């Protein structure tokens, strides 16, 4: 067995044992641990900033680009944010042990479901070291043990945060192995982590599309994954045009680099001439590049003709593709063909079209008259967000604590036997 | 591209297109199709029996064993049962489109969840041809398209049933491609089916452990799988001994070849001498072979000393392993070590021990004072059962129609934008 395989096997075994302890931990114990970790992080701010300084220096020396360095940097505000995030997780309701749907059956037994942790959660992420604290907190609150594997550029920061987490866990009487931060930068460690179903119950990759695709490809453990967000807004010919322009503007320009930003605007031909010129003016002020179908190019000036590729592209940038469609059916056909299944919205005052769109569009979030930017765990009231799942299996859309849990059946009897 | 790959790709593409139609089908349409299929199956009984006759002959000629031939055989009663099963599925509530947890958020949007189909379900099964009708019905009712792949020994029977299904679907105006029964016996078809994530959303293998392990190993599509059922009953020293003996007897002897039969009996040392001799007498009358720990061998006669392997074996036969343990903690430790996570039961009148057992035992069904034989979709009130999942991801325990669905978020707004 290679050293890395041996090391990861031991990490997995420790996680499996610790998971049994945290799965049984009472709410108060888990919350005490979360608050203790937050306290240690605050107290150790200087140590964390020093460790981060090493990563920042190495990053600069190796020529990391400015955006990556920005994400890598720990500042006093970021450290305070980590602690605050952990206290917020402590304040959330504990999902574990919740019993639902308890009913008597004709046999006399009572049957219901109890919410339970998944077991061991493996989280693989890139440069932001604050994910270490965030992911540890979410896993712990949901009664899971966690194995965290951050990017090699953040190794010193992540190990320093790991020290704080272990100190907090121990203070609360929970095993340090409940949260392990992989301390080798060897890439083979990831390959091991995603192929140990005996020790790991689910993998959550947080990072770029390349990372997620690679992991999904090679994992033999379930993966909660988030691929593209090619989100659509469809402005119906019975839309309230004031709402339509506000939402179409907000969905594109509120933030560009986010998965729930609109990438394609669909407009019913009946209102294209009313709606597009005004919107084009608004986008122009924000320097949003417009790429459109032939009709769009006729209706507004300065539009680049869109190619087939545009409809299938997540720009994550001030670029928008626009297509004029006949009606809601053509809009839904376009969405079925090009959407990544993340978030789609219809703007309409027509009851039947809204009802059909909600039912027939197969995306993780389907909206009527609201900005796609609302597709977010906090906006939905989940209290936390581990990611957004573009899969259908297990969990779909923004994933909160519940996404890290399962339900077992419980049966209460009084001596019943099968006849 | 090989012929089989080409064929399966086309099957997948047709399924994907049909899935969009059945996902939108109204409840009445789906029910009409289910009832129409039932009618056709009844009307075509002679044709089905004739096709089955070919399979039975080929099976006998090739030396299939009696148990397999028994499962392969269609009789007028089995055919009537298929039709009745479909009518029962038609009578179940439609899970699709159900909206839950709809709440207003501070932003003014209303957020909730809508239940949706998974899409395309691939079901791989062995000799019983009636699974063809059953699986088709469950997939259809839950708004999914299905690709069914039965065993090669049942090919004529399955194709004849497929004809009935297509006739019923067409009568109800739904696409025949909503249920496709693979008509090649080439093994490569299975390999294709489980590696087409673009066309197949979930695989459900129904069959022996070997089949399920092979499929889980090679699939790159989620698998709802059911491995061993090494179920335990623990008789606590505060058990009602009358309930204890009845349940321990029923859990082992009601049926032997089923996954929810007890395979290991754990008995608290405080009641071992009271409980085991009586139980041993009851088992003896049923010719159940007993294998026990040292203490068990001392307390009752005629017990074979159990080996380490016994604790980890699903006998599926009139064999039982018995272990005397100190208390509920030792019982739960034994279960944590050897259980397959299917079903475990404690017999006790003690409130705290029952509560702890329910919370701490990590199995898909955890019971107090009831026979493990109740771990079953029908007994739990699911109305149907596609299988029992021993996984935690997506669905755990008996899987009904809901296991073939997911939930998307829906958002109702009135022009809201993100601030």
Give the oligomer, counting copies of the same chain as homo and different chains as hetero.
homodimer
User: How many helices of chain A?
Assistant: 15
**Level of helix content of chain A?**
40-55%
| Estimated structural class of chain A | alpha/beta
Mean pLDDT of chain A: 95
Strand percentage of chain A lies at 15-25%
What distance lies between the first and last C-alpha atoms of chain A, to the nearest angstrom? 52 Å
Number of E-state strands of chain A = 16
Largest interface: A-B, 67 and 67 residues
Question: Major sheet of chain A: order of its strands?
Answer: 10-9-11-8-7-12-13
What's the main sheet of chain A like? 7 strands, parallel
Low-confidence stretches of chain A: none
Shape of chain A: globular
Radius of gyration of chain A: 24 Å
């Amino acid at each position: 067995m290679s050293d890395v395989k041996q090391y990861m096997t031991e990490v997995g075994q420790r996680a499996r044992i610790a998971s049994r302890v945290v799965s049984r931990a009472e709410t108060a114990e888990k919350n005490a641990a979360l608050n203790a970790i937050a306290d240690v992080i605050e107290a150790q701010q200087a140590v964390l900033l020093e460790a981060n300084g090493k990563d920042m220096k190495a990053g600069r020396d190796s020529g990391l680009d400015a955006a990556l360095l920005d994400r890598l940097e720990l500042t006093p505000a970021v450290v305070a944010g980590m602690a605050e995030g952990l206290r917020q997780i402590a304040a959330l309701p504990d999902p574990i042990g919740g019993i639902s749907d308890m009913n008597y059956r004709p046999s006399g037994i009572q049957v219901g479901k109890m919410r339970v942790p998944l077991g061991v959660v493996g989280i693989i992420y890139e440069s932001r070291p604050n994910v270490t604290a965030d992911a540890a907190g979410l896993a712990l609150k949901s009664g899971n043990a966690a194995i965290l594997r951050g990017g090699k550029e953040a190794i010193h920061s992540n190990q320093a945060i790991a020290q704080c987490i272990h100190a907090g866990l121990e203070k609360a009487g929970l095993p340090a192995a409940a949260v392990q931060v992989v301390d080798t930068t060897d890439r083979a460690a990831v390959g091991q982590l995603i192929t140990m179903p005996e020790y790991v119950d689910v993998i959550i990759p947080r990072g770029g599309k390349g990372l997620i695709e690679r992991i999904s490809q090679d994992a033999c453990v379930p993966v909660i994954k988030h691929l593209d967000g090619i989100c659509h807004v469809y402005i119906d010919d019975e839309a309230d045009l004031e709402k339509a322009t506000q939402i179409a503007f907000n969905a594109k320009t509120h933030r560009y680099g986010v998965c729930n930003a609109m990438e394609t605007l669909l407009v019913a031909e009946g209102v294209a001439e009313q709606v597009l010129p005004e919107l084009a003016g608004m986008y122009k002020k924000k320097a949003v590049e417009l790429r459109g179908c032939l009709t769009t190019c006729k209706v507004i000036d300065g539009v680049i003709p869109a190619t087939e590729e545009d409809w299938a592209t997540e720009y994550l940038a001030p670029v928008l593709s626009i297509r004029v469609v006949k009606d809601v059916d053509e809009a839904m056909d376009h969405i079925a063909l090009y959407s990544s299944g993340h978030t789609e919205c219809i703007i309409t005052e027509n009851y039947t079209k809204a009802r059909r769109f909600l039912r027939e569009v197969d995306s993780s979030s389907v909206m009527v008259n609201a900005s796609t930017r609302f597709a977010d765990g906090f906006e939905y009231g989940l209290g936390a967000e581990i990611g957004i799942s573009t899969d259908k299996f297990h969990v779909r859309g923004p994933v909160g604590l519940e996404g890290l849990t399962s339900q077992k059946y419980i049966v209460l009897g009084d001596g019943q036997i099968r006849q």
